TrEMBL record:
Gene name for this UniProt entry: LOC101888703
One GO biological process term: lipid homeostasis
GO molecular function annotations of the record: acyl-CoA oxidase activity; FAD binding; fatty acid binding
Source species: Musca domestica (House fly)
UniProt family annotation: Belongs to the acyl-CoA oxidase family.
Residues holding FAD: 89, 128
Alphabetical list of InterPro entries matching this protein: ACOX_C_alpha1 (IPR055060), Acyl-CoA_ox_N (IPR029320), Acyl-CoA_Oxase/DH_mid-dom_sf (IPR046373), Acyl-CoA_oxidase (IPR012258), Acyl-CoA_oxidase_C (IPR002655), AcylCo_DH-like_C (IPR036250), AcylCoA_DH/ox_N_sf (IPR037069), AcylCoA_DH/oxidase_NM_dom_sf (IPR009100)
Boundaries of every Acyl-CoA oxidase C-alpha1 domain copy: 225-386
Protein's recorded name: Acyl-coenzyme A oxidase
């Protein structure tokens, strides 16, 4: 599987190169890499072994290396003359980067770094493509000068001979084993023993080690985390894509499959006529759209921040970090749960490999873990919200994506309930700010009682997580509202199209309201009649969107090769394709399976003989 994936990945990478040259000659924009990776990944159901090379290795060289280092390594990596990965996670540590054990000791006598993974737990473990594909990697290690720890640093390390692909002396490298999915990616392990690299193999755009061993600290240590921010932005877009693919499959299947009359004596309807089926499928279509728009916003913000960082302006890093964390978490959680809901909406056939929903789930699910485990990132955002709440208390302005927190903090109570979109959006924001205030009271009380920040974060973790989750909901819903109601190009839309978008906004806001009704009722009084009115509107908007469901998913424009699903094929010949796939199964090559003579027949005969004996 790995070799097939590499073959496909190389073919697709070549295609990508020609597309880039045609549509984005010499451009550094992220989209070609993203589209390239998406295209390659989508065409390789077992995952793209070049993903981390495209998304992390090449970018780390460009963003963390000096111009000279880019000339020496980056250009060859961009041109796919060398293939690398990003080796940060270890067998013993993934989240807690300060606990990483791999070390780089500077030898000023030879102006080299001596790299070691001192224990088994120090082995790099997980990097994509590390097992067999890559001949280089970015090796993340704790930097030591005269045995004094200086923090994390990144090193360009060649791990295999460029001609023979043999692991180099001092390198122990291989595949970590079968996974739930992505088995074409050859995630690998890497051990280094007294492996020497020249001083100039340490990426030194932001921090330097001079020949005599003097260390020049980075102006902002967090800029070394930038490669992770980029992939978190990618995940937001990639996972909204996975959800859109699954929604397309389930929607098409739901208008082909007929089951169970709604009125006695009537013919069996398409299953999408059942209201409960509409509630399983249509909100997922809308969620895919909502996150795709949010991810596009985030991508633009990433581009702007990356250019600023290149100019040594680090001012926007904190906001990008907060948004990249919350969107990576929200998109990966909601897409993973949404794809499983869509699989279940397809009944038994949803469980068939031919439907491809299982594989889409297996591609989407690990995004809840890699690039920052989701609950750790929720806590990251929770910590940032605590800092911002202190700013609110001090009367200071907040970053634009958190401005609503300031506005809501000035409200002494929630205004009269109207049920309008603005009211629903404000309710989610108001509940978020209420949760932040409660979390801060707990957190601050702990800090005041002399608990350390990390301990206070841990013991306030549940409330911090809730506040972070609601912040994500507020941001995503607010972005969708702005795009539908206040977009500058709204007047270029046909009235029919605008109506469909407004129906999607109505559904999203009401769905989020009901998902967080408990959180909202803690801070806002809403009567039973007002809640029942929203229930009616939910049922109504599902009915309104039902006729548009197929058109919206067709507009995602996935061709059959990308969906790779007998349930979601464009021509709708589901049963014929399911049967065609079944007949291809190896067990159908013979009428009598080999195991009959070898196992089944003797087993049944033995039971029959025993039965006869027991009768005697
Ligand atoms: C298109 C296809 C897309 C995707 C699929 C295809 C390919 C990719 C597939 C897989 C690739 C996977 C790669 C990986 O998984 S790479 C390894 C990823 N590992 C992590 O993300 C580690 C997660 N851990 C953390 O982030 C750590 O907790 C942290 C680095 C945050 C450090 O925590 P620590 O406790 O040491 O410090 P904190 O106090 O939490 O933070 C200090 C300070 O720094 C700020 N901060 C933290 N992170 C960032 C950041 N990324 N950017 C900017 N700023 C950051 C934090 O807010 C604190 O600030 P302050 O409070 O002001 O001091
Ligand atoms: C498919 C896939 C591809 C990957 N690709 C790469 C790659 O290319 N390069 C790379 O370097 N890494 C890669 N990784 C590794 C990934 O980055 C780590 O798995 C991830 O960072 C989580 O770390 P961990 O696995 O050590 O889990 P841990 O950090 O051990 O987490 C285990 C549990 O402990 C909890 N926990 C940990 N810390 C805290 C805390 N401070 N507070 C509360 N709870 C906490 C977590 O929430 C989680 O529930 C990949 C992983 C996967 C699954």
């Amino acid at each position: 599987m790995a070799s097939m994936s590499v073959k496909h990945a190389i073919a697709a990478a070549k295609k990508l190169r020609s597309l880039q040259e045609r549509f984005n000659p010499g451009g550094s924009d992220i989209y070609p890499a993203l589209m390239g990776d998406e295209a390659i990944t989508a065409l390789i159901p077992s995952g793209n072994p070049l993903s981390v090379h495209i998304l992390m290795f090449t970018r780390a060289l460009r963003e963390q290396g000096t111009d000279e280092q880019y000339e020496k390594f980056g250009r060859r990596a961009d041109n796919n003359e060398i293939i690398g990965t990003f080796a940060q996670t270890e067998l013993g540590h993934g989240t807690y980067l300060r606990g990483l054990e791999a070390r780089a000791d500077y030898d000023r006598g030879t102006e080299e770094f001596v790299l070691n993974t001192p224990k088994l737990s120090s082995y790099k473990w997980w990097p994509g493509g590390l097992g067999q594909t890559c001949n280089y990697c970015i090796f993340v290690a704790q930097l030591y000068i005269d045995n004094e720890a200086k923090g994390m640093a990144m090193f360009v390390v060649q791990i295999r001979d460029e001609e023979t692909h043999m692991p180099l002396p001092g390198v122990h490298v291989g595949e970590i084993g079968k996974k739930m999915g992505l088995n074409g990616v050859n995630n690998g392990f890497l051990g280094l023993k007294d492996y020497r690299v020249p001083r100039l193999n340490m990426l030194m755009r932001h921090q330097q080690v001079l020949p005599d061993g003097r260390f020049v600290k980075s102006p902002v240590s967090q800029v070394s985390y930038f490669p992770m921010v980029f992939v978190r932005c990618m995940v937001a877009r990639q996972n909204s894509n996975y959800l859109a693919q699954a929604a397309t499959i389930a929607t098409r299947y739901s208008v082909i499959r007929r089951q169970s009359p709604i009125e006695e004596g009537q013919p069996e309807p398409k299953i999408l006529e059942h209201l409960t089926q509409q509630m399983k499928v249509i909100p997922e279509i809308v969620t895919a759209v909502v996150y795709r728009l949010a991810a596009a916003n985030l991508q633009n913000m990433y581009n702007e921040t990356a250019e600023a960082v290149y100019r040594k302006d680090f001012s926007r890093l904190p906001e990008l970090h907060a948004l990249a964390c919350i969107l990576k978490v929200a998109t990966s959680y909601d897409s993973t749960y949404g794809i499983e809901r869509l699989r279940q909406a397809c009944g038994g056939h949803g469980y068939l490999t031919a439907g491809n929903l299982g594989n889409i789930f297996a591609m989407a699910a690990p995004a809840c873990t890699y690039e920052g485990e989701n609950s750790v990132l929720y806590l990251q955002v929770g910590k940032i919200l605590m800092k911002n709440w202190s700013q609110v208390l001090a009367g200071r302005e907040l970053m634009p994506s958190m401005a609503y927190i300031s506005e809501c903090s000035k409200m002494t109570s929630f205004p009269q309930w109207t049920g309008s979109w603005e009211c629903l959006l404000k309710a989610i924001q108001y509940a978020c700010v209420g949760s932040i205030r409660l979390a801060f009271q707990s957190y601050n009380a702990r800090v005041q009682s002399a608990q350390s920040q990390t301990a206070a974060v841990n013991y306030s973790g549940l409330e911090l997580t809730k506040a972070a989750e609601l912040h994500g909901r507020s941001y995503v819903a607010g972005n969708f509202y702005q795009q539908i109601v206040n977009s500058p190009n709204k007047h270029q839309r046909s009235p029919q199209f605008q109506k469909v978008l407004e129906n999607m906004l109505e559904l999203h806001l009401i769905q989020i309201f009901f998902r967080h009704l408990g959180d909202i009722l803690r801070f806002i009084r809403i009567t039973e009649d007002e809640i029942s009115a929203l229930q009616r509107r939910l049922e109504e908007v599902l009915k309104e969107l039902r006729p548009d469901a197929v058109a919206i998913t067709d507009a995602f424009d996935f061709n059959d090769k990308i969906l790779s699903s007998a349930l979601g094929c464009y021509d709708g010949n589901v049963y014929e394709r399911l049967f065609e796939a079944a007949l291809k199964h190896p067990l159908n090559r013979k009428s009598v399976p080999d195991f009959f003579e070898a196992h089944l027949k003797p087993f049944m005969k033995e039971n029959a003989d025993n039965a006869k004996k027991s009768k005697l």
